[in-house]
Design a protein that fits this description.
This protein is of the alpha+beta class. The chain is built from 20 helices and 19 strands. The chain starts with 6 loop residues before the first strand and ends in a 5-residue tail after the last helix.
Length: 647
């Protein structure tokens, strides 16, 4: 049973103007109730399209969805304040993922109403003369949602109660899952192909879907399905289905299709392009740039259109954007001294609505290997500096503390804007750490001659670690104060980036596809850009450097899947990609088998090796228990067979 109320809620939402080629925004007519009967009008159909854009907010920017997509991989583990939602997904003996677990259930619960809305648009739009270009926006979202579902759960229902891909208007108490090949070949691929044929090259509305947005996801779906057909590590699927394609193609055919489709996206970019530097892609002042093709949007200008109070306390719940909080530690416990002779504690780094700070929730943390290995190059490659917060700077003046100078490590003076705590780039120096929290309040260490407290990579713990800069808070409405750090983020959360075309084509090339650019050629486009610096976040200063020649020269002559996965982590760390990347390539069990990190108490800098128990059946998330319970028309045996094995 996929339950639908006759009332489909459409929250208010906002798409701000950003692309110079697009001079319209979504025509909003927010309604508290959007009924199935409204599909009997042309206005209802077009309003349904608008609602599909809003649906992105239910997942993208949601911190629990972030946990589902990143926690338990090589990119993140649970942090000191984590609850079971994060510990279960770590697979390290602190709970088990079950059908009742919340984060894995989010996709199932969020996207089926959107799929049904898309079904209604596709089915009834032609009756009212709605242009196929607009209907194809719904086709895109239906395919987008099904692609997310099939990657997460395996086969899922194409029939929601009224026939395959048909609008369902009545609650039913039974459900049947289609197989993975059926979902791809009868749902995802046809919708995306037709969308490419009929969508415009430039967006109808700011941030709207286009031919190239659909191409990106078609290329990725081809790539993912090719891996599924090949199944190199014998990962089980469900419902049981032979690893054969109903259309008669083999894995190699799909890898070539992925390559060709991605290359078409690169060679016919439309309004999209790579930004000149990695910093430009992610700095808040450049949000909605033309590398960001699709995003879940927000605004600081209006609580109504933001769907949450942009100046109060964020709810920590969708449709808020609050993912950045999850991997933000409690830097506000940092202390300096107001006196040069007697340590008199002052909170020198206040909570503030700036991209490097924001609201700390301490739910997730990067394992030490992320800092030491994934981002080993921190000087040539700009992506470490453009991903993490590695220097926490004093802002006590903005909180009304009048001291012009405070005294920090080694009793040395610091001024507002000065470094209070720094995470070192490597372990070549060994800080002297205090016992416990120490004077600085967080157990950070000292190095001779330095005024900043320091933590080395091998001293990172579940309570003190680099924060996430790239998706952090950005506001413009209180430039001289601390702003509104407790509100949900008012930045867009990026869903699709033009840069991924290069990664998809490169991965397909490694899997045997051929064409005008090799895997090394494609990866080097990204690496060359990564070598270009515009600003140094750690030093908080303009820094112009072009290390692209060194970056491309260091690229191996033969690119492997492992190399691509490392590059993908450097490019997209913290953006909800990692679990899907590792599941697609069947590398999750290998990459995330163990990790190192310090403990949960301040001053605990001794790395602990943690082993995870990731089994093959874990490559599919469980069907939510709520779905099973709602199937009152199914027998106990049918309910048992509906659930993925192992759960």
């Amino acid at each position: 049973m996929i339950k639908f109320n006759k009332k489909i809620v459409l929250g208010a939402f906002f798409f701000s103007l950003c692309l110079s080629s697009c001079n319209e925004i979504l025509d909003e007519q927010p309604r508290s109730n959007y009924t199935v009967d409204y599909f009997n009008t042309p206005d209802g159909v077009t309003a349904g399209v608008t609602s599909l854009y809003r649906s992105l907010r239910l997942l993208y920017g949601n911190g629990y969805f972030m946990s589902n997509c990143q926690n338990g991989t090589d990119e993140s583990t649970f942090a000191q304040s984590a609850d079971g939602n994060f510990k279960e997904l770590d697979f390290s003996g602190n709970g088990n993922v079950t059908p009742a677990s919340f984060p894995p259930s989010m996709i199932w619960g969020s996207v089926f109403p959107s799929i049904n809305t898309a079904n209604g648009i596709v089915e009834r739009g032609p009756q009212f003369g709605v242009a196929e270009s607009l209907i194809s926006e719904a086709r895109f979202f239906r395919a987008f949602d099904y692609f997310m579902l099939v990657q997460t759960y395996g086969g899922v229902p194409l029939d929601l109660g009224a026939g395959e891909l048909a609008l369902n208007t009545n609650a039913i108490t039974t459900s049947k899952r289609n197989t993975v090949p059926e979902v791809y070949t009868r749902g995802i691929f046809p919708d995306l192909r037709k969308a490419i044929d009929n969508l415009p090259a430039s967006p109808r509305v700011t941030g709207g879907v286009t031919k190239n947005v659909a191409r990106l996801f078609l290329a990725k779906a081809y790539l993912t399905y090719g891996w599924w057909l090949q199944n190199p590590n014998s990962i089980p699927t469900y419902p049981d289905a032979p690893r054969t394609d109903p259309d008669g193609h083999n894995a190699q055919w799909y890898f070539q299709q992925a390559y060709d489709t991605a290359m078409q996206g690169i060679t016919t970019p439309g309004p999209y392009a790579l930004q000149p530097t990695f910093y430009d892609v992610n700095v808040g002042s450049n949000d909605r740039n033309n590398e960001c093709m699709l995003y879940a949007d927000h605004t600081q200008a209006s609580a109504f259109y933001n769907e949450s109070d942009p100046v109060g306390f964020g709810s920590g719940w969708a449709p808020d954007n609050f993912a950045a909080w999850m991997q933000t530690w409690n830097y506000t416990n940092l202390k300096s001294s107001s006196s040069a002779t007697t340590f008199t504690a002052v909170s020198s780094v206040q909570r503030a609505a700036t991209q490097s700070l924001g609201r700390p929730w301490v739910r997730m943390a990067p394992p030490i290997g992320v800092i030491q290995n994934t981002f080993a190059d921190k000087t040539t490659d700009s992506r470490y500096d453009g991903t993490f917060v590695t220097t926490y700077r004093g802002n006590w003046d903005k909180a009304g503390v009048t001291n012009a100078v405070l005294y920090n490590a080694n009793n040395l003076p610091v001024q507002p804007g000065g470094a209070i705590l720094s995470f070192l780039n490597d372990d070549s120096q060994t800080p002297t750490y205090p016992s416990g929290a120490g004077q600085n309040g967080v157990g950070a260490g000292t190095l001779p001659g330095r005024a900043d407290w320091v933590v080395a990579p091998n001293g990172i713990s579940r309570i003190v670690y680099p924060g996430l800069w790239k998706i952090g808070t950005y506001r413009t409405d209180d430039p001289n104060g601390l702003g509104y750090p407790n509100a949900g983020l008012t930045r867009p959360f990026n869903v699709a980036k033009f840069s991924e075309f290069y990664f998809i084509a490169a991965e397909a090339a490694v899997k045997g596809a051929s064409g005008s650019m090799t895997a090394r050629d494609l990866i080097n486009v990204i690496r060359a850009r990564a070598g270009k610096w515009k600003f140094n976040n750690a030093q908080n200063t303009t820094y112009i450097a072009d290390n692209s020649a060194a970056m491309t020269a260091a690229t191996p002559s033969v690119i492997t899947i492992d190399y691509i996965l490392a590059e993908r982590s450097r490019e997209y760390y913290g953006e909800f990609y990692r679990w899907y990347d590792l599941v697609r390539t069947q590398k999750w069990g290998e990459y995330a088998a163990s990790y190192k990190i310090g403990g949960t108490a301040y001053g605990n800098h001794t790395p602990q090796t943690v082993t995870r128990n990731i089994q093959p059946f874990h490559y599919l998330r469980p069907i939510p228990q709520g779905q099973i319970d709602a199937m009152s028309g199914a027998t106990a045996e049918e309910k048992a067979k509906y659930q993925n094995p192992g759960y």
